[in-house]
Records
---
Amino acid sequence: LIMAPDYLHLYTGNMMEVQRICADLEAVGIQAVVKDQETSAIRAGFAVPAQTDAVQIFVHRDEIKQAQKLI
């Protein structure tokens, strides 16, 4: 999955951290996009080793500075 150029990478971590950060972002009106590479690989039928930091958060470029302050 390639993100649209208007979305910038904010954070990479485990699912628990990502869920907390997304909740914090949502609380201030920032809509995040989550990319879970491990789940995507499993759904595609690939056997992948468990990765603890395989989940990424992307936010719109207009909101990146505000989002960075929250993490």
---
Amino acid sequence: SRIQNNLANVYNESNRYRLAIDHYSQSIIIKQKYLHDSASLATSFANLASFYTRYGNFSQAAQNFDQTLKL
């Protein structure tokens, strides 16, 4: 899941947004299903929320920030 998150960061910086979202999402799924590490999961939700904020999708950003706060 760390690899997925790092790939998402690379794609984000490379302006390959769809791939960034896919990898952030995959990271979250892996962490929820297998790792049960709330701190790491919160970081992934925060990364995805920051991504959405950066590109003006504030409703998606808010949903992901809310998930971060629930952890």
---
Amino acid sequence: RIGFDSSANHLFAGTEGGTVYNWDLQSQKATLLKGHKTSITSIAYERQSNIIATASSDSNVKIWDLRASNS
């Protein structure tokens, strides 16, 4: 799965292995978000709170605070 934020500053991609990539297109740096054990089926981004929600094929949903992952 792939998702963009509405300002097109971030690209999110989920893998079959359960990793989520968060690419900051301005800095050209990527952050890996690990925690799912199966393939990512959905990604949603909420810009004001700077969080994403991801779902995987085993029906797990995770909420990621991107401010915390960038520190």
---
Amino acid sequence: TSTWCLLRLAHDSKLQQEVFDELTESGIRSVADMTREALERSKLLHGIIYETMRLYHESVSMRKCIQDTVL
């Protein structure tokens, strides 16, 4: 999930800036400031993570063959 989320952010510089601005406004200016409470205040980042989980959920990316098929 984190890989897909980072890929989404990497392709959208405007979204990156919006997340950066929101985190800065939440008081996060360095890795040391990243507390659970501070990250929970970030509605945009929270939305991005949930949308990524919706689009790329485990059953899509973690498929496993359960039976060989001979054509």
